[in-house]
């Protein structure tokens, strides 16, 4: 049975689950983590491109100056031309590739590290020449790495700490005055501590905001009573899958499912019992949407819709009839039903291959007329129509109401 698992399929939200579990270590499950990273990159890519682009322009100027200077360091010239420029150029290229988000973050961290190492070299030489105020450049760049580039906390921490440790090693290696060395190392420690706290809190807040916006977006797409998608979301998904199905020549299966004699059920047992029955039936229907592109929706009142990208075969037998049997197996008492002692559903199925010979409206009409025939034939049954079925125009959503409302 579809309902034997004892959980509600459509009320599950990976975003709500992540929010409930918490994310103290700034990490989501893989699917949600990928979505967050992409959103985070898009929000910060503009600033990162500006910084990296400015660094590239500065390096080009430095290379131009070095070429005209006979005393320039050829090692530094080669490092800037054949290491820094290619890495930063690759970073800018990867920032425009949505499917390369991990590569982009690694390249951005590598670019930030290379810039930091060059700054450390310049600052160390300036300090040895009696200009210790150049140390402010290292402090400023550490702040940029923590808070401006939009690096994830782990990448920012690894990059900033490497830059700081490298600078500390240079201070010791070049035997700077002890008092000055202690002061600069202490300042780097304080700056990294402040940067780490701010970066962590900022990313935590961004992750929380991301989850909340996703949960709110899902709630806007769901029916408030059953947790299935609402009619608006279903219609939008049908349009998207119809276009995709035409491109990929993949069949679509559309199920319209109506609870039999539901008005009589409400009249006898009350609206609260009716709501409870709708939820239980929705649970069964929701388990039918198992594949990534499938969708189950409450289409209105006691009517549900199930859209399957591909054939309606699941769990080893025909899914529409399984849904009908599993609703019956709920054994929801319905003494005022002419169909049987329990609540039942009728199912109309349209199996179509989108193309010139069948429109989206025509496919929906096929499912609607199949549901009409199931009701007309005695309810608690499934009627299937194929793409080549002849439609009886005029009975669509008009004459059926006389049968459905009973």
Describe the structure.
The protein is 61% helix and 9% strand. With 406 residues, the protein is of the alpha+beta class. The chain has two domains: 10-220, no CATH class; 231-404, 2-Layer Sandwich (Alpha-Beta Plaits). The strands form two sheets. Strands 2-3-1-6-7 form a five-stranded mixed β-sheet, with helices on both faces. β2 and β3 form a beta hairpin. The chain is elongated. The model is unreliable at 1-11 and 393-406 (pLDDT under 50).
Chart the SSEs and their pairings.
Layout: H1 14-21, H2 30-67, H3 74-94, H4 101-128, H5 135-147, H6 153-173, H7 178-221, H8 231-248, E1 252-259, H9 262-269, H10 271-286, E2 295-300, E3 303-309, E4 313-314, E5 317-318, H11 319-329, E6 345-352, H12 360-376, E7 382-386, H13 400-404
Parallel strand pairs: 6-7
Antiparallel strand pairs: 1-3, 1-6, 2-3, 4-5
Helix pairs in contact: 1-7, 2-3, 2-4, 3-4, 4-5, 4-6, 5-6, 5-7, 6-7, 9-10
Kindly provide the radius of gyration, computed on alpha-carbon positions and rounded to a whole number of angstroms: 32 Å
Class inferred from helices and paired strands: alpha+beta
Strand count, sense and barrel status of the largest sheet are: 5 strands, mixed
Q: Work out the helix count.
A: 13
Approximate shape = elongated
How do the strands line up in the largest sheet? 2-3-1-6-7
N-to-C SSE series? HHHHHHHHEHHEEEEHEHEH
Annotation, overall tally of beta strands: 7
User: Any low-confidence stretches, pLDDT <50, length ≥5?
Assistant: 1-11, 393-406
How much of the polypeptide forms β-strand, as a percent range? 5-15%
Number of separate domains: 2
- The amount of helix comes to 55-70%
C-alpha end-to-end distance = 29 Å
Mean pLDDT: 87
């Amino acid at each position: 049975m579809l309902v034997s698992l004892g959980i509600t399929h459509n009320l599950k939200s990976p975003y709500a689950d992540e929010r409930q579990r918490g994310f103290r270590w700034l990490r989501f499950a893989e699917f949600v983590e990928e979505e967050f990273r992409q959103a985070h990159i898009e929000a910060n890519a503009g600033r990162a491109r500006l910084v990296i682009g400015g660094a590239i322009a500065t390096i080009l100027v430095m290379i131009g100056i070095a070429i005209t200077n006979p005393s320039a360091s050829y090692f530094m010239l080669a490092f800037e031309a054949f290491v820094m420029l290619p890495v930063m150029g690759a970073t800018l290229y990867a920032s425009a590739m949505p499917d390369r988000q991990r590569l982009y973050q690694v390249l951005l961290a590598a670019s930030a590290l290379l810039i930091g190492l060059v700054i450390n070299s310049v600052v160390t030489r300036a300090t040895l020449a009696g200009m210790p105020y150049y140390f402010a450049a290292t402090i400023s760049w550490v702040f940029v790495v923590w808070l401006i580039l939009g690096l994830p906390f782990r990448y920012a921490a690894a990059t900033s700490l490497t830059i700081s440790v490298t600078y500390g090693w240079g201070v010791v290696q070049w035997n700077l005055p002890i008092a000055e060395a202690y002061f600069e190392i202490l300042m780097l420690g304080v700056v990294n501590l402040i940067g780490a706290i701010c970066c962590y809190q900022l990313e935590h807040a961004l992750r929380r905001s991301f989850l909340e916006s996703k949960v709110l977006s899902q709630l806007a797409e769901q029916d408030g009573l059953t947790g299935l998608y609402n009619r608006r979301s279903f219609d939008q998904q049908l349009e998207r899958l119809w276009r995709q199905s035409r491109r990929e020549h993949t069949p679509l299966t559309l199920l319209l499912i109506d609870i039999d004699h539901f008005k009589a059920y409400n009249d006898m047992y009350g609206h609260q019992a009716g709501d409870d029955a709708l939820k239980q039936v929705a649970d069964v229907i929701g388990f039918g949407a198992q594949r990534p592109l499938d969708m189950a929706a409450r289409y209105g009142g006691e009517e549900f819709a199930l859209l399957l990208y591909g054939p309606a075969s699941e769990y080893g037998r025909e899914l529409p009839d399984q849904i009908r049997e599993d609703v019956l197996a709920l054994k929801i008492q319905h003494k005022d039903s002419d169909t049987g002692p329990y609540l039942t559903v009728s199912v109309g199925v349209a199996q179509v291959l989108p193309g010139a010979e069948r429109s989206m409206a025509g496919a929906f009409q096929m499912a609607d007329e199949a549901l009409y025939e199931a009701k007309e034939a005695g309810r608690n049954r499934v009627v299937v129509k194929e793409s080549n079925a002849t439609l009886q125009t005029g009975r669509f959503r008009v004459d059926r109401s006389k049968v459905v409302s009973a």
